[in-house]
Amino acid sequence: MAHQTVVSKTVFMEQLPGFISATNLCYVCKLNKALYGLKQSPHAWYTKLSTYMLKCGFQGSKFDTSVFFSNKGSSIIILLIYVDDIIITGSHSILVNSLIDQLHNQFALKDLGCLSYFLGIQITRTPSSLHLCQHKCITDLLYRAQMFDCKHASTPMSTSSSLSLYDGEPLSDPSLYHRIVGALQYCTITRPDINFSVNKVCQFMHSPTTTHWQAVKRILCYLKSTISHGISLQPSTDLSLTCYIDVDWADYPNDRKSTSGHYCFLGPNLISWSYTKQKVVSHSSVESEYKGLANAASELIWIETLLTELHILFFTPPVLFCDNLSATYLAAHPILHVHTKHIEIDYHFIRDRVLHKPLLVKFTPSEEQLADILTKSLPIPHFQSLRNKLIVLHNPLHLWGDVKQCN
């Protein structure tokens, strides 16, 4: 839809092959409308679409610029926009169909019906769940890496694996490594079970070695064996927000920085997760866990404010589960001051949230810590147990097209 938008700035382009003026070879074309591939096209299209949505009575979310919504009484309709791909959902199908007609009158669009495929994500609808997986993306990735017929692996990384900068011999051509690892990052959208291992191999993009490539191949072998697995979302009246956070202190042998990971749940459904390398070396495991708590709290606050804006009400404060007792105490009380006074002030906002009760931090035993799968490679039974608790499941049986069940 980029061609439907007007360019706000002066942009010139070379004459198109086959349409070059014989008398004015040095002339260039001044663009009035945006073209696909133009750097300004996404912004121009977003401006045009958002202006129209606001004119139709919709509000733009203050917390996610890709979300527009309209709430009238007990009815709500929500748009999620990614450039010119749009998901529309609402409390009544009449409202949804009416909006589609409005958009169709204003723009050239194609209605693809019920949501089944979006940005490489396959959505399977059953009476009891929505299943999100990236079967096609993973299949294409395996073919690109020439590993579609590879052996299966039960976990994405060996428990004995400890990657560093100096393992193995440098790859003669690292371009394949860059392409495959970049694609693996996109696969983590529906596969939180590979987040840890993918993040590990991402650390060596600038100088990959043969050992790092073997780790990538292990991830691909695991994806081949679980190619139809993905996130399952289930309807529930439980709207409580919970988050599990875990940290691996000083786990990087080259710089001794820590990594922290967290999983956020809305009721029984996993809705957000992250695995990041902390920017500063921590003096202790308590400090690294405390920083991880602050990062996870920021994510919870954003989710809560976004959902509240969409008129989803919460009657209990969000809960953070941490398996470090000292960090849990530190979030509620200024203890261990001598050992923590160097911590940056911006991390201490979590203590203010806990003291004023909009956030709870609770201790959970390590054996019940779901975020363990984000910070370390695990034995097969423990890994599969946590994967099931995250509701990363095999794609349910689904009948396509006009195929129907027969007695």
TrEMBL record:
InterPro entries: DNA/RNA_pol_sf, RVT_2
UniProt cross-references to CDD domains, sorted A to Z: RNase_HI_RT_Ty1
Domain Reverse transcriptase Ty1/copia-type: 7-158
Name under which the protein is recorded: Retrovirus-related Pol polyprotein from transposon RE1
Organism encoding this protein: Vitis vinifera
